[in-house]
Amino acid sequence: MEYRYELTIDKLLQSGVSSNPAQKINYTGRREFTFEEFSKRVEKLAKALISIGVKKGDRVAVIDWDTYVYLEAYFAVPMVGAVLHTVNVRYPQDLIYYTMDHAEDKYVIVRDEFVPILSKNREAFYFIKGWIVYSETGQIPDSLSPKYVYEDLMKDSYSDIELPQISENDLATTFYTSGTTGIPKGVQFTHRQIVLHSISSGLALGDDPINLTSRDTIMPLVPMFHVHACGVPYMSILAGRRYVLPGRYDFDHIIDLIDKYNVSVIAMVPSILYLIVTNPNVKKIAGRGIRAIVGGGALPEGR
User: Fold this and answer.
1) What is the mean pLDDT of residues 158-182?
2) pLDDT at 276 over 80
3) Residue 268: beta bridge partners?
4) What is the pTM of this model?
5) Angle at Cα 265 formed by Cα 263 and Cα 269, nearest 5°?
6) CA dihedral sign of residues 30, 279, 219, 42
7) Is pLDDT at 218 greater than 70 in this prediction?
8) Could you tell me which residues are beta bridge partners of residue 95?
9) DSSP bridge partners of 97
């Protein structure tokens, strides 16, 4: 009998939980989960998606900042065999619509503050079967239909729902390129590709000059809609590292988070690095030996 170990995204989460169940995920200083608690929430979200009709191959879009909800969707959506579409919230409204239509999105997880943009043109989104809305204020807009409230979905146990068997060759994610000629172009990734990227990134960054270990606290400042935040969420959960989510980028607050959680590794493009080092509050974290993973542009020659 042949035994086949599938390289699927759920294995990344299982590895992190089994090696470091008490490790923490911190969200902007407002919410905190252990890896074990996070894993249970991911499973509950996956089953909730099945309960509202999400099927294998369906595209599930996320419109959000870098939040714990986004991180839960990173794992839960692919775990049910659906495809996670990380929508670029920096696009103008017409391109948000274009990419969602082109991707053939069926369901959308959306933060409350983005609802007015979508509801203004809700007739155009005829192809959406369900809007899953969440709010940190408790004020859930009613302008999209059919609507599900994220935290209400997370209250059920779903004990009668089984997660489906998935293959490492199933599609897991899709997103759209920016900065290219013409309109945005979609790219897709399988479970296997994401798992192998997570493993190889962890190995590459485990040596000089970053020397990333499970004792580090990491906060990526690459938006989660952009190339899986350079793969940092998957790589970090796999390795059991403490993980800090910044939410919407506010650089005074980001520096406070680096200070509060003793963040030792950050990842970003040069423009974000510039906004940090030129912030008047950067003195709070100066001299700590924070390592920065920088990509997406050429750095000037050091002097």
Assistant:
1) 91
2) yes
3) 294
4) 0.95
5) 120
6) positive
7) yes
8) none
9) none
What's the mean per-residue pLDDT of the chain?
94
Q: Are 284 and 255 in contact (CB under 8 A)?
A: yes
Using alpha carbons, select from 17, 56, 67 the residue that is nearest to residue 40. 17
Residue 179: its pLDDT value, please? 65
Mind listing the pLDDT tens digit for each residue in 55-70?
Answer: 999 999 999 999 999 9
Q: How far apart are CA 22 and CA 36, in angstroms?
A: 7
Rounded Cα gap, residues 35 and 47, in angstroms: 18
Asked if 70 and 42 touch (Cβ cutoff 8 Å), the reply is no
Q: What angle do CA 202, 244, 71 make, to 5 degrees?
A: 80
CA 84 to chain centre: 10
Report how far apart, in Å, the C-alpha atoms of 299 and of each of 3, 101, 200, 212, 277 are. Answer: 47, 37, 24, 21, 14
Structural domains in the chain plus CATH codes: 32-190 (3.40.50.12780), 191-294 (3.40.50.980)
pLDDT band at 3 (very low <50, low <70, confident <90, very high): confident
Taking the C-alpha atoms of residue 187 and residue 197, their distance in angstroms, rounded to an integer, is: 15
Q: Output DSSP code: residue 126.
A: T
Of the candidates 223, 232, 228, 227, the one whose C-alpha atom is nearest the C-alpha of residue 293 is 232
Q: What is the DSSP letter of 125?
A: G
Q: What is the predicted pLDDT for the residue at 97?
A: 96
Mean pLDDT within 287-298 = 86
Dihedral sign (CA 113, 117, 122, 125): negative
